[in-house]
Amino acid sequence: MDSVIHKIEQKYKKSQVVDVRPGDTVKVHQKIKEGSKERIQIFQGMVIRVDKKNSLSSRIVVRRISSGVGVEKSFLMHSPLVVKVEVTKRSKVRRNYLTYMRERTGKSARLSNVDFDREGVNAVQDEAAEAEEAKMHEEAKKAHAAEEAKKAEAEAKESAKVEEMLANRENSTSEDKLDKGEKSEQ
Fold first, then answer.
1. What is the full DSSP assignment across the chain?
2. What is the pTM of this model?
């Protein structure tokens, strides 16, 4: 039984994830789908909780202050919607759950920084996520090119209409002049 569950978990697990610890300041790149459009939203904040680090259901809780209101968001590390997690700052903490940070504001909410190898920590290559991101960029470029082509076509039609109207106006004015000339001769 355990082996079947383990096989299923291994199938859906990402090959590599970033080593995230409580107290880290991270940027989480999350895929958001709005109607038929997809975009990537970046949520930056401090990790206040890490659960089940080596499991398929490993989760981090990221907290940030937005417009004076504390916002906490929970991310599953192996979710296909989480494109990338990037550690920007690492702090010295002695607890696993930093829920006490919720009550702190201002200078009391600061943590002391620790030097770390940023490139080494963030050097996680997930080919599937990179391929999907490149695919999204290609689709966006194609959609933009199609939209530009439609705009150019509409502008060409509009300019053709304007030229036709000007030609008709010139013809009508020349006919009016001829009519006036004929009337004056009579």
1. -HHHHHHHHHHHS-S------TT-EEEEEEEEEETTEEEEEEEEEEEEEEE-TTSTT-EEEEEEEETTEEEEEEEETT-TTEEEEEEEE-B--S-S--GGGGS--GGGG---B----HHHHH----HHHHHHHHHHHHHHHHHHHHHHHHHHHHHHHHHHHHHHHHHHHHHHHHHHHHHHHHHHH-
2. 0.65
Q: Which residues pair with 49 in a beta bridge?
A: 61
The domain spans of the chain are 2-125, 127-186
Angle CA 83–84–90, to nearest 5: 155
Nearest to 40 by CA among 144, 119, 130: 130
The CATH architecture assigned to 2-125 reads Roll (2.30)
Which residue, among 24, 55, 42, has the nearest Cα to 83 in the 3D structure?
42
pLDDT tens digits for range 29-60:
999 999 888 899 999 999 999 998 888 889 99
Are 32 and 144 contacting, i.e. CB atoms less than 8 angstroms apart?
Answer: no
Write the pLDDT tens digit of every residue in 50-91. Answer: 998 888 889 999 999 999 899 999 999 989 899 889 999 999
Backbone φ and ψ for 28, nearest 5 degrees, come out as -105, 120
